[in-house]
Design a protein that fits this description.
about 150 residues, alpha+beta, rod-shaped
Length: about 150
C-alpha cells in the first residue's frame, strides 16, 4: 500500500467524521466509519513502512485532527452550516376548553379518524370516536382534549 492510499484513507476518514459532525449529528455510525478509515490508514503505515513511519503517521494524524478542531472552534465554522432565520409562524389553535361534551357540529372533511369539524363558528381538529365518518355528517362531542375534540356521528 503506497503513501497515497494511506493518506487517502486518513483524509477520507477525517472528511467522513466532519460530515457526521456537521450534517448528520447523532448517528455515530458514520463517525465510526470515519474513525475506522483513519485507523486503517494508520495501521497500514505501521504494517508497510515500519514503526518509525507508523509513529509519524499517528502523530501527524493526531496533530492535524487537533488543529482542525481548534480552527473549527476558533473561526466558528459550524455557523456556515447553521440556520440563522427564526420562524415566527404559528400553528392553527383554537380554544378547545370552550367546547363541552354534547356540543353538536358538522364534519367538514372526512374523519379517518382525524379531520376538521365545525362547531358553531369555529373550525377545529376532530377525532372520530368510532372509526371513519364522512364529510357533512352531524356529530356530537364526546370528549374534549387540549388540541382536539373526539366526536361520534348522530
Amino acid at each position: 500500500m503506497t503513501w497515497t492510499l494511506i493518506l487517502a484513507c486518513i483524509l477520507i476518514g477525517m472528511l467522513i467524521i466532519a460530515v457526521e459532525v456537521i450534517f448528520i449529528p447523532g448517528t455515530t455510525v458514520v463517525g465510526f466509519l470515519g474513525a475506522a478509515a483513519m485507523i486503517t490508514g494508520i495501521f497500514f503505515s505501521y504494517e508497510v513502512y515500519g514503526n518509525l513511519a507508523g509513529n509519524f503517521t499517528l502523530l501527524g494524524t493526531i496533530l492535524i485532527s487537533a488543529l482542525a478542531v481548534y480552527f473549527a472552534f476558533k473561526f466558528k465554522l459550524w455557523n456556515l452550516f447553521s440556520l440563522k432565520e427564526e420562524s415566527d409562524s404559528k400553528i392553527k389553535s383554537a380554544e378547545y376548553s370552550k367546547f363541552k361534551v354534547g356540543d353538536v357540529g358538522m364534519t367538514i372533511t372526512d374523519l379517518r379518524p382525524m379531520g376538521e369539524i365545525q362547531i358553531g363558528d369555529e373550525i377545529v381538529d376532530g377525532e372520530s370516536y368510532s372509526g371513519y365518518i364522512q364529510a357533512q355528517i352531524k356529530v356530537e362531542v364526546v370528549q374534549v382534549f387540549k388540541n382536539n375534540v373526539k366526536v361520534k356521528p348522530l
